[in-house]
Design brief:
This protein is of the alpha+beta class and 265 residues long. The protein has 3 helices and 16 strands.
Length: 265
């Protein structure tokens, strides 16, 4: 399975380079202005790849993105207003994660593609880094496939297949429905071992998620978005792993939501 992931990522990155070469002439002719996006989200829970990373506290997640000619830079953070003692060993409000993402996005016909690098700065764990490649189609359900590869502290592959659809609720308000399924393959059992075989690294269908969001424009540049999510395991092994890593220690599925404010410039 790991060899398959390796070949898949190589093919994904190779196709991205080819597509970038084919579209470079068109990009050179385009006149594109730099853009910026500021987002502030308030959620009832922080869930990442199926893992519950907060407990009974409001989390605030600001994000800033700048982009130009397909290149992007994003800075994202997580402020837990009341950290869980069992998970972090420290209570109270604390800024416990800052992520930096460098990316390149482009499209060719109905296909869009993206490659990028993510640096995870974590207060209560070792910092880590990932590279990723993604391909999506501008068709019904907008399917996308993204493959992440950790290249630092926690080597492994995370592959997510996502679908979504946008409905017009009115002339200005939209509703997005969607979800994803994933597969997680870890390289080293010392990081995450198979629950049924501690001598082997964990590799299985991992987490699924469904969501609904509503986009409500306030002005030309400001949108308010109520959001609701449901996260759940896709296998018995994933259920065991999620319970161990998550804050509660005995739950493997989570309903959470909140509201975000998006400002585009």
């Amino acid at each position: 399975m790991k060899e398959i992931y390796h070949r898949t990522l190589e093919a994904l990155l190779t196709s991205t380079l080819v597509l970038g070469a084919l579209s470079s002439a068109a990009l050179a002719e385009e006149t594109e202005k730099p853009s910026a996006d500021v987002n502030i989200a308030l959620y009832s829970k922080y869930v990442w790849r199926g893992f519950e990373l907060s407990k009974d506290s409001l989390v605030i997640q600001p994000s800033v993105t700048a982009s130009y000619m397909g290149f992007g830079f994003n800075l994202w953070g997580n402020l837990d207003t009341d950290q869980d003692l069992n998970l972090y060993g420290e209570e109270g409000g604390n800024w416990n994660e800052t992520d930096m993402t460098l990316s390149y996005d482009n499209s060719l016909g109905i296909m869009s593609y993206s490659v990028g690098y993510i640096y995870y700065a974590l207060q209560y764990a070792d910092d880590s880094q990932e590279v990723y490649g993604s391909i999506s189609l501008d068709t019904i359900m907008a399917p996308s496939l993204t493959i992440y590869r950790d290249i630092a502290r926690y080597p492994g592959w995370y592959t997510a297949l996502k679908v979504s659809h946008t409905f017009d609720l009115s002339e200005t308000i939209t509703v997005d429905l969607g979800g994803h399924i994933s597969y997680l393959s870890i390289d080293d059992e010392s990081y995450i071992a198979d629950p049924d075989d501690p001598t082997s690294a964990y590799s299985d269908f991992h987490d699924g998620q469904v969501f609904v969001t509503v986009g409500i424009p306030v002005t030309e540049y400001i949108t308010v978005v109520p959001e609701l999510y449901y996260s759940f395991p896709l296998s018995s092994a994933a259920s065991d792993i999620i319970k161990v890593v998550s804050s509660s220690g005995d739950d493997d599925n989570f309903v959470y939501g909140g509201i975000s404010l998006n400002m585009a410039f």
